[in-house]
Fold this protein.
Amino acid sequence: MRGRSERTSLGSGTTEINMHKAEFTDGRSITALFAKEGIDITPNKDKGVCKVVKRQGEKGKSPMIGDKVFVHYTGKLLNGKRFDSSFDRKEPFSFNLGKGQVIKAWDIGVTSMLKGEICTLLCYPEYTYGTAGNPPKIPPNSSLLFEVELLDFSGEELTEDGGIVRRIKVKGEGFDNPNDGATVHVHLEGSYGGRVFETRDVHFTVGESEDAGVPLGVDRAMEKMQKGECCLLYLKPKYGFGTEGKQRYAIGPNASVVYEVTLKDFVKAKESWEMDLNDKLEQSLLVKQKGTQYFKAGRYYQAVIQYQRIVSWLEMECGVSKDQQQGIQDLLLVAHLNLAICYLRLRDFSNVVENCNKVIETDAENEKALYRRGVARLHRNELSLSLRDFRHVIQVNPSNRAAHSQITICQRKMREHHEQDKKIYANMFQRFAEHDAKVAQLKRKRDGSKAGDLSSKRKQRRSQDCS
């Protein structure tokens, strides 16, 4: 490798990498270097991946399985020929560690690194591209040399809102996960502000962890874990103890907490395809009761989980008999209506509208669905659509006082918006008029100036003619 300096960046940080090792022209010099300075980092110690640290990283800051890592690297054959580099693309390379997204040598090598570390990895073919190689740049049975800098890493986000972040300390067995309704046996250790506030073993049903006093975030992570896995879960308030906090543990409102969770064992619940229609109808009634229990307790996220189970079981089902078909429709209607009211309490107005639409598709005169959709649309400032929904409610039930009140609110807001628009447009037209007046005034001045210049020139000519 030629002596040179390459500048790398991630975000606002900038790091200088000195590629100071002499370029090798054969594999013997490299082998000698690694025999002297290299560390075997393979799990089975077969020397398939050896590392030489060129710059030490930050102590205590190492990535875990599943983390998203950001690296800069240069890859070479043992004869010194470069075949790839992130510097050529002028941006770091990122991947999820330990997920098989890169060659085995990289998963092993980067796992061993600290943030900010620069190292050189000597990797044998069985840990890179094997007997096939990666033509045309990498021949078959090639050992490879990589220089890698670990720039940064972050945990795996299990939810779209980033409310649950997982970092895996110990990888689990196989590929099977607990499903919704599974019974799980876990060991928990919860901490807040560096203080451990609970340590216990607990059994609970996935989707019903509230019954065992286990936070929602731990419950939601179960479907991503394997037996034997030990992970850290970073939970934002929504997935921890919410706005209430947990007095028992001296945790105040809106606190983020961390749980170390070990999944000791689990028994999966029947999947939808394993249940017959009678099972689904029977289970839906039980789940509906559980959802109502959570709703009354103000546990709206937990209630949503229950009602969504009914939808997942029944939305594609067709009853053999009229009674079965009616039972399916009744349960789906209740599930969508209850989801709508839960989402209203959670202020997730898009999901309110979506679930109300599902009801209205089959029951166009459903008073609750029309009303709840109207409220959601009102919150979204879709005033004309909201007004239409509330008027439809009055057509269905003229004595619905709440709908009458909402119509009054809609009309008032529409007048306010109209007045606001008038002011905006009035000010806009006033500014246009003032601008036009200034332009006209400047034009008159220019025209007057030109006329003065012409008059002056004519007088000057007449004066010259007289002389």
Notes: The radius of gyration is 34 Å. The longest strand covers residues 144-154. The first helix runs from residue 27 to 37.
